[in-house]
Specification:
75 residues, mainly beta, ATP Synthase, domain 1, 4-stranded antiparallel β-sheet
Length: 75
């Protein structure tokens, strides 16, 4: 498991330990799991799926490094 934090300008949308995060990347949907290679990606309109819970977004950016995922999004 790794820690995932989803933020918008006003508040924390999600913060906790997760097994999987599926993200709507600019170049296509991708999944982040434990020990994923470090990555930075922009996000397009779609849904961030965290362990089967969906969070719709209009756009954003995500970084995964050292088992920590942080996404800054616009809803």
């Amino acid at each position: 498991m790794f820690n995932a934090t989803i933020l918008d300008q006003a508040h924390v949308i999600f913060d906790g330990k997760v097994k999987s995060v599926i993200l709507p990347g600019d170049e296509g949907e991708f999944e982040v799991l434990d020990f994923h290679k470090p990555i930075v990606s922009s996000l397009k309109r779609g849904e961030i799926v965290i362990d089967n819970m969906g969070f719709p977004i209009s756009r954003g950016i995500v970084r995964f490094q050292k088992d920590q995922l942080i996404a800054l999004v616009e809803l």
